[in-house]
């Protein structure tokens, strides 16, 4: 691994093994008891927090939130997950587990550590398969068929609690002993524990240090000293009194999602899986039309030279999408790998600066020379580039159909929304011929048609960009075995057709394909991959023969997506109205994470994005400056 001073990587834990038990070299302490780590976890954390009894009380559509101060080997998380499964909660209930780790284990060390617990093998395998690369920030892992959501923050504990939005029902104050890891036990960190606790929240910790006990009591916890595990004499448990605040209810109201593209279908399914009824509305005759109706779509993102919020959002979206689409492998997701070509001198220089200023784990991407690029893609390239082994291409329309096959999703097609009107505590969607749909809350994710549906006066910095893709028969080109991206993308062949494109037509609203746009795609493809096209027919002739598709992307002034509550020009929220739009040409990458984020918001569950990234995709920024109040 490169210098730990370069973003976004995070320094891994240095582990040594002594009599089969992992120890932290940095802190000189064991990750769990030498006697019986799993038994210790149950005794120290699960029992004092009364998890079995409390899990049994979680209602359909409800949630239970556990927060932890040190993820370590993940043993505490797996034990809690096992206990959750043991209570057989309703399939719409969600266990949220939020944990922080400053020095995360490598995947190999994690595998080694969890091999010690055969009874947790199935859960451990799923965790390991979804374990994120070691890069800083928040990682949302959706496990157990969606019933368990792990938010794993790689970074400092105080930074994490300031960045994340959640309220815990129970705390595992874990991590190494206070004397060995004092930073984790600072009074400021304990104050953040209180700030993120619901009334009635409980806590447990292996330590009984007086300073820790007094700090917890000072922020409002009623703390008890109890017998410790094994040879440890004492430990602490606590309760934040005042239990008058009820548990947050599950999804009991109705939500209408306007737009049945990939974003709308992902959101509808996410909400339905959490127990919320959804009405999915679209003007088309079925889901997965418009841009989501393309035969193939490349799933990638171009990471910035500087690691800033924009780059972090792109990276987080990329990693979440890879994990999400994995369940549809060989069904409609094809992780062939993806090459970002250094297709010009300017792009080669950008990639050089990018590599100098950043350090990413090789499981995300790594640089390749021309020979390796040609070997990986199966076509002759003129340069090297960046190879993303976990990327690939998607059949978006097919996925949309799979996603919307759910008993809580009502599909309403051929319905053109005229107006959105508040009526008796709900929103009414007026349709053709006097037909109406009503819902407590609505989400506008209608792509380039979104601005016309926003029920506020004013102008918005959302724009429509025409994109035409070209369908190339196998006989007309040398098809790659992986996605190749440069000025255009070229996908591997599927049923005899490979898709290339797309044009970027900012001031063209022609919905029909044109030979001119095909010619542009073919010219750019030939420039990007010389020799890939058959020489039997000139480009002009081929442009007249091929087929394709036109779709209109919706993008913003800053080319960043929009997701969240709709705000007016002064920043006031419009009750019950949300946006999910502006995903541009990276919709397949952004949509899964932003659907998760918006579903968190709509269901009142912990947010998968840190606050600053949530602000990055906020809705107020899309108001045109001349309409903003001073």
From TrEMBL:
InterPro entries: FAD-dep_OxRdtase, FAD/NAD-bd_sf, MnmC-like_methylTransf, SAM-dependent_MTases_sf, tRNA_MAMT_biosynth_bifunc_MnmC, tRNA_MNMC2, tRNA_S-uridine_synth_MnmC_C. Gene3D superfamilies: D-Amino Acid Oxidase, subunit A, domain 2 (3.30.9.10), FAD/NAD(P)-binding domain (3.50.50.60), Vaccinia Virus protein VP39 (3.40.50.150). GO terms for biological process: methylation; tRNA wobble base modification. This is tRNA 5-methylaminomethyl-2-thiouridine biosynthesis bifunctional protein MnmC. Residues 255-600 form the FAD dependent oxidoreductase domain. Its cofactor is FAD. Residues 258-630 are annotated as: FAD-dependent cmnm(5)s(2)U34 oxidoreductase. Residues 1-241 are annotated as: tRNA (mnm(5)s(2)U34)-methyltransferase. Keywords: Cytoplasm, FAD, Flavoprotein, Methyltransferase, Multifunctional enzyme, Oxidoreductase, S-adenosyl-L-methionine, Transferase, tRNA processing. GO terms for cellular component: cytoplasm. Catalyzes the last two steps in the biosynthesis of 5-methylaminomethyl-2-thiouridine (mnm(5)s(2)U) at the wobble position (U34) in tRNA. Catalyzes the FAD-dependent demodification of cmnm(5)s(2)U34 to nm(5)s(2)U34, followed by the transfer of a methyl group from S-adenosyl-L-methionine to nm(5)s(2)U34, to form mnm(5)s(2)U34. Its EC number is 2.1.1.61, 1.5.-.-. Residues 118-239 form the MnmC-like methyltransferase domain. GO terms for molecular function: flavin adenine dinucleotide binding; oxidoreductase activity, acting on the CH-NH group of donors; tRNA (5-methylaminomethyl-2-thiouridylate)(34)-methyltransferase activity. It catalyses: 5-aminomethyl-2-thiouridine(34) in tRNA + S-adenosyl-L-methionine = 5-methylaminomethyl-2-thiouridine(34) in tRNA + S-adenosyl-L-homocysteine + H(+). The gene is mnmC. In the N-terminal section; belongs to the methyltransferase superfamily. tRNA (mnm(5)s(2)U34)-methyltransferase family. In the C-terminal section; belongs to the DAO family. It is found in: Cytoplasm.
């Amino acid at each position: 691994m490169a210098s730990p001073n370069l973003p976004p990587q995070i320094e891994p834990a240095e582990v040594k093994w002594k009599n089969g038990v992992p120890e932290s070299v940095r802190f000189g302490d064991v990750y769990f008891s030498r006697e019986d780590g799993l038994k210790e976890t149950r005794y120290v954390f699960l029992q004092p927090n009364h998890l079995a009894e409390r899990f049994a009380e979680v209602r359909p559509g409800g949630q239970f939130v556990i927060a932890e101060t040190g993820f370590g080997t993940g043993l505490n998380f797996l034990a809690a997950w096992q206990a959750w499964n043991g209570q057989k909660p309703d399939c719409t209930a969600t266990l949220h587990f939020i944990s922080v780790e400053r020095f995360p284990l490598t995947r190999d060390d994690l595998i080694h550590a969890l091999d010690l617990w055969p009874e947790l093998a199935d859960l451990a395998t799923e965790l390991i398969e979804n374990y994120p690369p070691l890069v800083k920030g928040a990682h949302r892992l959706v496990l157990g068929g969606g019933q368990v959501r792990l938010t794993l923050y790689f970074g400092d504990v105080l930074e994490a609690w300031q960045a994340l939005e959640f309220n815990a029902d129970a705390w595992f104050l874990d991590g190494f002993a206070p004397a060995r890891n004092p930073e984790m036990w600072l009074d400021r960190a304990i104050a953040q524990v209180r700030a993120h606790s619901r009334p009635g929240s409980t806590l447990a910790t292996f330590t009984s240090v007086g300073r820790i006990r007094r700090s917890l009591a000072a922020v409002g916890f009623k703390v008890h000293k109890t017998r410790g595990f094994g040879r440890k004499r004492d430990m602490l448990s606590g309760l934040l009194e005042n239990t008058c605040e009820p548990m947050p209810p599950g999804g009991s109201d109705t939500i209408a999602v306007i737009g049945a593209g990939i974003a709308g279908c992902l959101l509808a399914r996410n909400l339905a899986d959490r127990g919320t009824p959804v009405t999915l509305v679209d003007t088309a005759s079925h889901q997965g039309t418009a841009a989501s109706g393309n035969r193939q779509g490349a799933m990638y993102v171009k990471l910035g030279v500087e690691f800033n919020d924009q780059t972090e959002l792109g990276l987080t979206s990329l990693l979440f999408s890879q994990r999400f689409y994995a369940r549809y492998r060989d069904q409609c997701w094809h992780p062939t790998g993806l090459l970002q070509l250094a297709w010009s001198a300017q792009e080669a220089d950008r990639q050089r600066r990018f590599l100098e200023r950043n350090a990413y784990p090789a499981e995300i991407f790594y640089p390749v020379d021309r020979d390796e690029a040609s070997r990986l893609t199966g076509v002759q390239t003129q340069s090297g580039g960046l190879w993303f082994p976990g990327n690939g291409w998607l059949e978006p329309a097919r996925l949309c159909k799979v996603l919307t096959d759910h008993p809580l999703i009502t599909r309403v097609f051929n319905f053109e929304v005229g107006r959105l009107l508040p009526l008796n505590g709900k929103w009414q969607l007026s349709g053709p011929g006097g037909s109406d749909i009503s819902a407590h809350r609505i989400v506008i994710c209608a792509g380039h048609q979104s601005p016309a549906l926003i029920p506020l006066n004013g102008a918005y910095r959302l724009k429509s960009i025409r994109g035409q893709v070209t369908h190339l028969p196998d006989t007309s080109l040398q098809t790659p075995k992986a996605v190749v991206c440069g000025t255009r993308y070229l996908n591997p062949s599927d049923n005899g057709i490979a898709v290339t494109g797309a044009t970027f037509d900012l001031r063209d609203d022609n919905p029909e394909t044109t030979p001119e746009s095909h010619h542009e795609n073919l010219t750019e493809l030939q420039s990007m991959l010389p020799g890939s096209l058959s020489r039997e027919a000139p480009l002009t002739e081929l442009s007249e023969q091929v087929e394709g598709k036109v779709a209109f992307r919706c993008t913003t002034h800053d080319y960043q997506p929009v997701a969240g509550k709709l705000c007016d020009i002064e920043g006031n929220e419009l009750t019950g109205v949300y946006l999910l739009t502006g995903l541009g040409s990276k919709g397949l990458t952004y949509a899964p994470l932003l659907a998760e984020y918006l579903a968190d918001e709509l269901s009142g569950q912990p947010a998968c994005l840190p606050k600053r990234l949530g602000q990055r995709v906020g809705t107020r920024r899309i108001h045109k400056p001349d309409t903003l109040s001073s």
